[in-house]
Amino acid sequence: MSVGDRATISNMTPEYGATAAMFYIDQNTIDYLTLTGREAEQVALVENYAKEIGLWASDMKQAEYPRVLRFDLSTVTRNIAGPSNPHARVSTADLKEKGIAGVVENRTDGLMPDGAVIIAAITSCTNTSNPRNTVAAGLLARKANELGLTRKPWVKSSFAPGSKAAALYLEEAGVLDDLEKLGFGIVAYACTTCNGMSGALDPKLQQEIIDRDLYATAVLSGNRNFDGRIHPYAKQAFLASPPLVVAYAIAGTIRFDIEKDALGNDKDGNPIYLKDIWPSDEEIDALVKEAVKPEQFRKVYIPMFDLGVTEKAASPLYDWRPQSTYIRRPPYWEGALAAPRTLANMRPLAILPDNITTDHLSPSNAIMMDSAAGEYLHKMGVPEEDFNSYATHRGDHLTAQRATFANPKLFNEMVVRADGTIKQGSKARVEPEGEVMRMWEAIETYMNRKQPLIIIAGKDYGQGSSRDWAAKGVRLAGVEAIVAEGFERIHRTNLVGMGVLPLEFKAGTDRKTLGLDGTELYSVIGNIAPRSTLTLVIERATDEGKSEIVEVPVTCRLDTEEEVSVYEAGGVLQRFAQDFLEGNVA
User: Fold this and answer.
1) Is 586 exposed, middle or buried (0-12, 13-18, 19+ CB in 10 A)?
2) The Aconitase/3-isopropylmalate dehydratase large subunit alpha/beta/alpha domain covers which part of the protein (predicted)?
3) Of 326, 442, 456, 537, which is least packed with CB atoms within 10 Å of its CB?
4) How confident is the model over 189-242, as pLDDT tens digits?
5) What is the torsional sign of CA 527, 357, 359, 427?
6) Do 120 and 21 reside in the same domain of the chain?
7) pTM
8) Which of 428, 473, 480 is nearest to 451 (CA)?
């Protein structure tokens, strides 16, 4: 397996639940280090070190593993992931059977078809370390151009490599112009579409999506496609390789069967299929070998780290700027985080279903004017075109707090319509009044009351990106505990680090079996210890108007004594401060 492919797999580890993806060091590794401009001395050091300590490929054959999985690489076909999660892999050959691809609308009225791809983006993170991917996209674009294929007019296409080196080797390969001709010109060298920063749509297309309630989609080569993340008007998003992104820009709709439907016709009227423009491994490897050179990486990275003569700051302390909406003195020793956690008489901020992602908890996408964060930035004098994304403002807690549960795709089961269905959106119901309002207004209401909060959830709470604000936001809102059927591993750790107590329902018990509706008061009693059984005390009114107490055993998901220590300190920052003041930090 090429080092570029290994890097792509490693980049996706949070998405498939791993901490890291480890590969042995071999000649491919050494060749890659040389190719990407590392000094000969460093390359030799890596090789000698790996061989000396037993990490070289031949040495790893002697390693003993508790479990061995065998996987035939020859069975791998083209795949995409979607429509809502990066681990939801589906073969492109199976799209029709899965109900994703199907009959394509042949509209003659100039309107977009059902399943229209409104965004097609080659993004930075999952292809920057893999020149084969971007070169493959360039070769596919070249063949498409030669046959007269074009992207559909409603597709907003972009190319944002993570490194300027990509532009150099693609130009050397002669395919940068081919990508540009199909609409995939370089727009930036950074996170863009993957982080909700694809920019505004054509106003006419946006209005058409609204008026027709169109099922519009995005296709991108990034690693995250959670609901509401990519663009407010892309109802769902699919992850694909860079060449497949270009192909879907030509197809113009996710309903297109990319393996069987014709992308268009040549000048003689013959149908053109994906197989006709898909580059072979031999073509890709030959062009990579010819065009990707060490001097391209040296040209980009050596000047980047050449700081030259730098002026020493007058003070080692940062001069906080009160009006900044990007970086502000954090409140981690004030307010809710400084207050004692009583775990008593907590009100539920939300009752949530399974598979709540960190994008539901703290979205990173573009900030809209009608959101709580948008209104705040507008009040601060920031023009709408400079709102940027939630992710870029996470150094300002006043913006980031307003991102808590701000995802428009959220389903808070406490917010129910008259017909009994759950209303989608960033909504909450304040108790005991029972008033439904925007989530941020509900949080402010509870903060002013100094009301401790709790969250009730289903399975896999906190899956997806390992985002710190998904834990910071709920803690600053006053959430003291979260009771779920299960937690994503990394997010559970982040909750502990923020002083939020993760509790897990015992098997057979959940929010539905208990009939929870959000009118209850919750308390937690018992001895907090690693994986101890605590009691969740639920106080609620009966149909007769009397008070009822229900006691539910739950598992404390502080899994180690160290986690208990961090939690009892109030979080990892408070624990560090204690150790520092006590002289325990070197």
Assistant:
1) exposed
2) 1-252
3) 326
4) 888 888 778 888 999 999 999 999 999 999 999 888 888 788 889 999 999 999
5) negative
6) no
7) 0.86
8) 480
